[in-house]
Design goal:
58% of the residues lie in helices and 16% in strands. With 326 residues, it is of the alpha+beta class. Among the domains are: 1-152, Beta Polymerase, domain 2 (2-Layer Sandwich); 259-323, Methane Monooxygenase Hydroxylase, Chain G, domain 1, CATH 1.20.58.
Length: 326
C-alpha cells in the first residue's frame, strides 16, 4: 500500500507523482523523490523496481521480509534493513512484536518499505519538511532521519524493561513472594531484552559503515549525524548488556533464596521429627509390658511417663527454637 510519494526540490514539496510517474517526474524535475510503502504487494514492488531500476536481489529481500538489520551496497545504491520493535497489540502486557523497514537509498530517491508494523513515519516526514535546510541534503538526510526514528523508538522499550527490573529487585526479598512467578517474570524480561539486542547489535554495524572510513557517496554529507545515531546505539547496547547481567544475577539470587527456603523447611521438619522421635522412644519403652518393669504396678507411673515425655519434648523444642530451627 502506497503511503506517500513526494518529489522534493531545494527542500520543498514540488509534486506528488504517484508510483507510475516517478521516473517521468525525475526526468523533468531536479530534486529527489521520497516514497513510503506499507506491506506492499508484488505488483507495487514490481512497478517500483521498473521505475527506479532497483536491484532484483534487494527487491526480493524487501518482498519476503524477515531480514536481520544490515546494509548492502549495489553500486551507488544502498539497501538497508532495520527492525521495528513495538508493544504487541494483542499479546500479553509487555510483550513485543517485531516489524521491519527496508530502505532503498539512491542519488535521487529514497524508498521505505514497512512490514508488520503499526507505527508509521509520518512524524519523520513532517520533521524533515520543517527543516528544509536539512532536506536539501537529499536522500542521505532522509535515510538518517528514518534510522534515527527507528533507534529513538528503542529507548522507551528499554526504559520500561529497566523500570520493571528495578521494581522486581525491590520486592524480591519480601516474605511470601512466589519464587516461581519471579523466575517467570525474569525470563520474560530476558526475552524482551533478546528482541532488543537482535535489533540493536546488527544495526551498530550498519551505523559504523556510515561514518568514518569509506562512506557511501550518498551519505557522505551526513557522517556526523550517523555518528550520533551510532552513539545512541552504543548507549542502548550498554544498557541491554547491563540489564542482562542484572537479570542473571537476580535469577541466581532467587534460586539461592529458594534453596534457603527449602533448607529452612527441612530444618523445621527435622526438628519436629526429632521431638516426636523422642516421645515415641519413651512411649515405646513403657509400652513393652514386661512383668519385671517397676513402673507397671506404680499408681503414679502413667502421670510420670506423660510428664517425662512432655519434659523431653519441651526441652527439645526450646533447644531447636534457640537454634532457629523452629
Amino acid at each position: 500500500m502506497l503511503i506517500n510519494c513526494v518529489l522534493y526540490d531545494d527542500g520543498r514539496v514540488v509534486a506528488e507523482p504517484g508510483l507510475a510517474g516517478v521516473s517521468e517526474a525525475l526526468a523533468r524535475q531536479s530534486g529527489f523523490v521520497w516514497i513510503a510503502l506499507k506491506d506492499p504487494d508484488d505488483a507495487e514492488l514490481a512497478l517500483l523496481q521498473c521505475e527506479l531500476n532497483l536491484p532484483p536481489l534487494a527487491v526480493e529481500d524487501a518482498r519476503k521480509g524477515h531480514q536481520r538489520p544490515k546494509l548492502e551496497e549495489y553500486g551507488d545504491l544502498l539497501f538497508a534493513a532495520m527492525h521495528l520493535v513495538e508493544p504487541a497489540q494483542d499479546g500479553e502486557p509487555g510483550e513485543l512484536q517485531v516489524g521491519e523497514v527496508h530502505v532503498f537509498v539512491g542519488a535521487r530517491f529514497v524508498v521505505s518499505v514497512r512490514h508488520r508494523s503499526t507505527q508509521g513515519f509520518l512524524g519523520v516526514r513532517d520533521r524533515a519538511q520543517r527543516e528544509p535546510h536539512l532536506l536539501r541534503m537529499g536522500p542521505g538526510f532522509v535515510f538518517y532521519a528514518l534510522m534515527d526514528a527507528v533507534v529513538d523508538r528503542y529507548f522507551p522499550l528499554m526504559d520500561a524493561v529497566e523500570a520493571e527490573l528495578e521494581q522486581l529487585e525491590e520486592t524480591m526479598f519480601q516474605k511470601g513472594r512466589d519464587r516461581q512467578a519471579v523466575v517467570q517474570q525474569l525470563f520474560a524480561l530476558k526475552q524482551r531484552l533478546a528482541v532488543l539486542r537482535h535489533a540493536v547489535s546488527p544495526l551498530r554495524e550498519v551505523a559504523g559503515k556510515l561514518h568514518g572510513g569509506r562512506v557511501p557517496q550518498v551519505c557522505r554529507a551526513m557522517e556526523e549525524y550517523f555518528r550520533d545515531v551510532d552513539d545512541h546505539l552504543v548507549r542502548l547496547q550498554g544498557s541491554i548488556e547491563a540489564a542482562r547481567e542484572t537479570i542473571i544475577a537476580a535469577t541466581q539470587v532467587n534460586l539461592t533464596l529458594v534453596t534457603i527456603d527449602e533448607s529452612l523447611v527441612t530444618k523445621r521438619l527435622a526438628a519436629w521429627a526429632a521431638i516426636f522421635a523422642a516421645s515415641t522412644a519413651l512411649a515405646g519403652i513403657w509400652g513393652m509390658n514386661f512383668e519385671g518393669m517397676p513402673e507397671l504396678k506404680w499408681a503414679y507411673g502413667y502421670p510420670m511417663a506423660l510428664g517425662a515425655i512432655a519434659t523431653v519434648s519441651g526441652l527439645l523444642f526450646w533447644r531447636f527454637r534457640r537454634l532457629g530451627w523452629l
